[in-house]
Every structure is written in C-alpha cells, then in structure tokens.
Amino acid sequence: MDLDRFAALAEAYGGDVSRWPESVREAAALLMSADPAATAPLLAVQSDLDWALDSWRPPAASAALQAAILAGAPAERRGPAWRGWIWRTGLGAGLMAAGAAGVMAGVVVSGAIAPVGEMEVITAAVSAYDSLDVELVGDV
Amino acid sequence: MAAAQDPDDELLGRIARGDPAAVRALMGRKLTRINGLAVRMLGDAAEAEDVTQEVFLRAWRQAPRWIPGAARFDTWLHRVALNLCYDRLRRRREIPTETPPEQTDEGPAPDRRLEAADVGGQVAAAMARLPDRQREAIVLCHYQELGNIEAASLMGVSVEALESLLSRGRRALRLALADVR
Fold first, then answer.
1. Looking at beta carbons, which pairs linking B51-56 to residues 24 or more positions away fall under 8 Å?
2. What digits encode the pLDDT tens for the residues B88-128?
3. Overall fold of domain B1-97
4. pLDDT tens digits for range B40-66
5. What is the domain extent for residue A17?
6. Over chain B, what is the mean pLDDT?
7. A21–B148 CB contact, under 8 Å
8. Interfacial B residues in 77-116 facing A (CB < 8 Å)
9. Which of A46, A67, A115, B14 is deepest in the core (most CB within 10 A)?
10. At residue B82, does pLDDT exceed 70?
C-alpha cells in the first residue's frame, strides 16, 4: 500500500483504521509503522470529521411508534376461548380436582391388588400426568 | 454452520408462531438502528417514524415466509428501509416544496461561523444537502457500520464506486463543517 491509497482509504472510511475493510487493515498498519509522520495527519483530519458525524444523534423512537409497531405484530396464539371461560367459572379447577382424586383412588386400589413389582409402573404412569388440567379440560 | 448463522433467524421463527416476547426482542434489537437510518436518510423525524413503522409491519408479514440461512435479516431490513426512504425522497422531488433544491455545499459562509454549540444540528443540515447516494453511502458505512461489501451490495454498486461516493460525500461534509470545533 502506498501513501496515495492510504489517503484514499482514509477519505472513504474515516480516521479509525479498525473500521476500514479487513482486507486492507494489515497493509495500512505496516505503512503507519513505516511512515507515521505522513499517515498520522491524514487520519487526524478524518477523525475530526468522524467526531462531528458521531455528534448527530437522532431522537429516540417515540412511545407511539413502539405501540404502533407492537399493534401490527402477529397476534399471540391462544387456546380455544371456551377453555378460558371454563377456568374463569371455576369449573376447570373442580374438574381437575375430581380427576386428580380419581387417579389417586386408582393408585390406592391398584396398590391393594397389584403385586409390589407392578407398583413402579403404576407410579410412573401417574407421574406422566404433568398436564393433567389440559387433558381433563380437553375431554369436556 | 453455527458461526455463520443469522442471530435473527431464531427470533423470526418464534415471531411466526406468534410469540410476543420474540416480537419485543426483535423490536428492541432493530428499532433504534432502523429509525436512525430513516432519520439520517430523510432528515425528518416524523417521516422517519412512518418509514420505521412500515418496515416493521413488513418484517412481521415476512416472518412466516423467512427461510433461515437464505439471507441476512438485517440486510433485508436495511433494503426495505432504504426503498421506503427513496420512495419518500422521490415524492419530495415530484412535489415542489419550500425546501431548497439539493446542492453541494460550498463551505461555510461568514455568517455561519458559529460556535459548535449544536454540532449535531449542523451535521444534520450538511448531510441533508448531500446528494442522496453520497448520503446513503455515509449512512450505511459510518452510522450503520456495515462492511464495504455489504453496503455496496445494498446500493447495487461496486466497492470502488462505493468508495468514490464515500470520499466525495466526506469531502463535502468536511467543507461544510469546517467551522465546527
């Protein structure tokens, strides 16, 4: 890289060599080491302009803009409306409680009639009911 | 593969599924960037907000169709924003207004030798007087910090042509801002 090319790059990309294209940075660094007296003033002039450019800060986006952007976003997907109605009325909680009671009763009865070795299978089956509420409400 | 993955791809997939947290996250990541681009291209905050809103509406519509890995989402977003800005700049030229026509600044007049109390305002005014393509090059490379290849691609020019636009733009700005500092 010669000094003319260095000056052209400084004029295009500014006084901070770390912001120049990666492909020329190494050659620029070599020239800066070899001829600091010639390269430093070229960078200083451009750094002054960089400083001025950086002082122009656009206003922050307004709250109204943010609200409008969010209002236009894809709607959150929810379950069927009747599911919320069931929970609001308390029916869902009742159904869940009844269902859970039934499952537990089944475990007790099974424990009484099943051999000890099969209890682990039954317990594992019951523990799989993580989404018990969904299953029960979904069957209504 | 992982290193080259677009960090926005995952959010777009969630947005397509209607995830409100992903919507907010993408807006938080891009809003200042895109609104800043529009303000600097148009020089008008209200018009810039209109553009920004439209950019995001298009992004929401694009999310379900977005193919991960096919393009960088940030580049696509810039393309949409620039197109919308140019639509408005063209409309300004078609509709005569009180705004003086675009011209290259010849340097500071004596009565403009002000203290640099509002350097930002002076920069904004000087940027507004640049030809559109020079302003676009400076906005993309200096403010948006895009690489030269990406900026040239967005502008549809060679890297050499981009450097020429940057140099002419910066030279004009240096003249216009000679009284600053």
1. B51/B81, B51/B84, B51/B85, B51/B88, B52/A61, B52/A65, B52/A69, B52/B81, B53/A65, B53/A68, B53/A69, B53/A72, B54/B84, B55/B80, B55/B81, B55/B84, B56/A69, B56/A72, B56/A73, B56/B27, B56/B30, B56/B31
2. 999 988 876 555 544 444 455 544 445 444 899 999 999 99
3. Rna Polymerase Sigma Factor; Chain: A (1.10.1740)
4. 999 999 999 999 999 999 999 999 999
5. 3-54
6. 88
7. yes
8. none
9. A46
10. yes
